Amino acid sequence: MNGADALIATFVANEVTACFANPGTSEMQFVSALDRNPQMRPVLCLFEGVATGAADGYGRMAERPACTLLHLGPGYGNGIANLHNARRAFTPIVNVIGDHATYHRRYDAPLNSDIATLVKPNSLWARSVESPDEVAGMAAEAVAASLTPPCGPVALILPADSAWLETRSAPVMAQKPARPAPKGDAVESAARAVRAAKKPVVLIGGQACRADGLKEAARLQAVGVQVFADTFVARQPRGAGHYAPRRMQYFGEAALAELEGVDLMVYAGATQPVAFFAYPNRPSVLVPEGCRTLSLADRAEDAVAALAALADALGAPKQGPAQPLSKPDAAPSGPLSPQLAGISFARHLPEGAIVCDDSVTSGGGIAVPAMTAAPHEVLALTGGAIGAGLPLAVGAAVACPDRKVVSLNGDGAAMYTVQALWTMARENLDVTAVVFANNTYRILNIEMMRTGAGQAGPQAAKLLELGDPAIDWTSLAKGLGLPAVRCDTAESFETAFAGAMAQRGPTFIEAAI
User: Fold this and answer.
1) Residue 497's Cα: distance from chain center in Å?
2) What is the pLDDT of residues 368-384, one digit of tens each?
3) What is the largest CA-CA distance in the chain?
4) Would you identify the CATH topology of the domain 338-512?
5) Does 3-164 match 338-512 in CATH topology?
6) Residue 142 CB: number of other CB atoms within 10 A?
7) How far apart are CA 81 and CA 68, in angstroms?
8) Which ranges of the chain have pLDDT less than 50?
9) Whole-angstrom Cα distance, residue 383 to residue 358?
10) CA R_g for the chain
């Protein structure tokens, strides 16, 4: 047995059984060891940003880490954007980054780089394995670190000789820490403050937005406490039977308008809300002036238990409000728009579906009718680095092969990680990928005006428009192995989406809007 065998054996012993990979020469021992450890599922991704985004989607749904296999510093660098999203989603991921052999690093070969510095910003823990006998123990440490609340990506740097040299190390079991209860009298203090407030709000995020957390939040709503969720949540149930908290508005002035008069804001699994960007003469902090704030449970603590305790302290009923099941009766008609696509989405989305949302400006048209659709879960773009929707769907489908996955994407966002379509085809994943093609970075046109930069002229427009040449999405998807259709009417989208929901396997829909 060599170091690579010890690494994979330890991963498998700790339920890390999926590897999203884009390997190179330094990782060949790991690749070879896969044949001796068939419990690990290898998934090839043609770009590292797909591998890291897929590991994010997998971890959000499986609630345990996948590993990635990345080729030295440049390979890790290609995956950083979706690791930024994963860090903001608090997703457990173990990134295995191959490195030159320990004795070869001093020669500064062309692919040599400072991997330790590259991984630091998006890693809760990072170590380099300097001998094969350290591999098993350090792999267990990495798994435990990724699962330490509030969880997140970690980095295990594996020099080539630590992988190829022999070792007698047995697999090591990771210590998996539990979420601690809220600190001290946090619940009692919050209950007193809520009773004394004229217009209290509870802001939830992270773990508090899962199904159990929403049930407790609904109880607070039942006693008149308004509940808001973070703007972008890693994983949140939606649709019939689920409580739908209000969502913090993306634009700061809209958020503050909704919060007008609020005199108490309590955080549960969330922190102080801030504007996504700074704008001239607009506030950064989205807390009304004079509003008191306090933390019921931070992101590492058990926010679900804290919400339940607060609801009990306020005398809330055991059951709060939930969304009814109300699907649109009639199929839409006319030129396709996000709103009309949303009607078909709500009509045909199956129960238990997983929706990976990177649809940017088109997303609102889907979200409104989806509120009363069949119950499903949504994985959002937590860190704002577009290009997550397709890779998230790959990982979610690997983690939950019995559930339909729908990936909603803006056309600009989808081009960041379009290689994910190939992996969907190769792995025969049950994913329906939808790209809303408006041939522009519409969000940037909006933001250009909001920042005071003015209307885009002919030179500026060259950096904001995607239509010259127009991207031939159906040819692109077919070239990567997927059946694909273009829809420019509500009728054609209705037919395509209904068909995709009624069958298994990967498919692609271009929604021309």
Assistant:
1) 23
2) 999 999 999 999 999 99
3) 69
4) Rossmann fold (3.40.50)
5) yes
6) 32
7) 14
8) none
9) 11
10) 24
Residue with tokens 């995020």: 205
SS3 assignment, position 226 = strand
| Residue whose C-alpha is closest to residue 400's, from 50, 57, 51, 20 | 57
Does the domain formed by 186-313 have CATH 3.30.9.10? no
Domain boundaries, the chain: 3-164, 186-313, 338-512
Distance between start and end Cα atoms, the chain: 56
* 302-319 pLDDT per residue, tens: 999 999 999 999 999 999
Check residue 1 and give its pLDDT: 94
CB 412 within 8 A of CB 489: no
Interacting residues of 404 by C-beta distance below 8 A, sequence separation 6+: 349, 350, 352, 353, 354, 430, 432, 501
Nearest Cα neighbor of 393 from 378, 406, 411 is 406
Q: What is the CATH number of domain 3-164?
A: 3.40.50.970
Strands, DSSP E only, in 365-513? 376-379, 405-410, 431-437, 484-487, 507-512
C-alpha 398: how far from chain center: 15
**How many Å apart are CA 453 and CA 280, to the nearest integer?**
10
358's enclosing H/E stretch is strand 354-358
What does the block give as tokens for 306? Answer: 């804290």
Q: Of 15, 75, 72, which is closest to residue 40 (Cα–Cα)?
A: 15
Q: How many whole angstroms separate alpha carbon 473 and alpha carbon 465?
A: 16
Would you give the distance in Å from CA 504 to the centre of its chain? 23
**Which residues lie below 8 Å from residue 29, measured CB to CB, with a gap of 6+?**
2, 3, 4, 160, 163, 164
